[in-house]
Amino acid sequence: MPETDLIHNETAGIERLLEIMRRLRDPKGGCPWDIEQNFASIAPYTIEEAYEVADAIEREAWDELKGELGDLLFQSVFHAQMAAEAGHFTFQDVVTTMSNKMVSRHPHVFGDESREKSADQQTADWEAIKAAERADKAQRGTLDGVAVGLPALLRAYKLQKRAARVGFDWPSADNVIDKIAEESAELVEARDSLSQAEVEEEFGDLMFVMANLGRHLGVEPEAALRAANAKFTRRFEGVEAKLSARGKRPEDSDLTEMDALWDEVKVESRAAAKTDHK
């Protein structure tokens, strides 16, 4: 099929997208912006698209999710095209690597192992397989392979989870709560008598322990904070709506009024949630 026909063939699937990407990066006739990009410049867009996928799922915006998944797929295609141009690998290599990994990590589905396993046993088997993969990559340390580019809160959670697998962990959530109290006191001391750099260090220590508490409570801290952000956004927008009904904007109000409206919005949102769950 001629390249032009492929690009305009809406039934051509992934091959059409790959050809579009190749043309966008064509030094002679492609898009100047796309041609100028490299792995480092595109990586922030990749992260952003992943968060937009998560946002659409959280809002249950299924029509939007289709587009967001497409945007994320395009990021993979973009990186693979640049890799092919540099002679590193192709998109087909990406697909083959992922397929091989999934087959290898699911011997109870694609191999001879029994599917009659508990979820805990499957998790243990999964971790053992991943540990063997890291060993093949010469990643010998317990924390090797926890991506540096992850959001800091998520990376803290994963680092602690990895350390816990080899026994480096507090016995219970109560021990973590005690540590939070200790770190909080150290932060107050730093605020009152130490440098800004030391305040930042103590604040980071406190956040790190908070992430560990989430793990002990079965709470993924990144997801929990996203939910808290969304709740704050909804409630503050509710405050703005109530102010607007009074002919005012936040800058025309004060903390006392806005705090009272916040309490009203909170009560209303909880009542609405109870009604939805009936």
TrEMBL record:
<dbReference type="GO" id="GO:0006950">
    <property type="term" value="P:response to stress"/>
</dbReference>
<dbReference type="InterPro" id="IPR021130">
    <property type="entry name" value="PRib-ATP_PPHydrolase-like"/>
</dbReference>
<dbReference type="InterPro" id="IPR011551">
    <property type="entry name" value="NTP_PyrPHydrolase_MazG"/>
</dbReference>
<dbReference type="GO" id="GO:0046052">
    <property type="term" value="P:UTP catabolic process"/>
</dbReference>
<dbReference type="GO" id="GO:0047693">
    <property type="term" value="F:ATP diphosphatase activity"/>
</dbReference>
<dbReference type="InterPro" id="IPR048015">
    <property type="entry name" value="NTP-PPase_MazG-like_N"/>
</dbReference>
<dbReference type="GO" id="GO:0046047">
    <property type="term" value="P:TTP catabolic process"/>
</dbReference>
<dbReference type="InterPro" id="IPR048011">
    <property type="entry name" value="NTP-PPase_MazG-like_C"/>
</dbReference>
<dbReference type="Pfam" id="PF03819">
    <property type="entry name" value="MazG"/>
</dbReference>
<dbReference type="GO" id="GO:0046076">
    <property type="term" value="P:dTTP catabolic process"/>
</dbReference>
<dbReference type="GO" id="GO:0006203">
    <property type="term" value="P:dGTP catabolic process"/>
</dbReference>
<dbReference type="GO" id="GO:0046061">
    <property type="term" value="P:dATP catabolic process"/>
</dbReference>
<feature type="domain" description="NTP pyrophosphohydrolase MazG-like">
    <location>
        <begin position="37"/>
        <end position="110"/>
    </location>
</feature>
<protein>
    <recommendedName>
        <fullName>Nucleoside triphosphate pyrophosphohydrolase</fullName>
        <ecNumber>3.6.1.8</ecNumber>
    </recommendedName>
</protein>
<dbReference type="GO" id="GO:0046081">
    <property type="term" value="P:dUTP catabolic process"/>
</dbReference>
<comment type="similarity">
    <text>Belongs to the nucleoside triphosphate pyrophosphohydrolase family.</text>
</comment>
<dbReference type="InterPro" id="IPR004518">
    <property type="entry name" value="MazG-like_dom"/>
</dbReference>
<dbReference type="Pfam" id="PF01503">
    <property type="entry name" value="PRA-PH"/>
</dbReference>
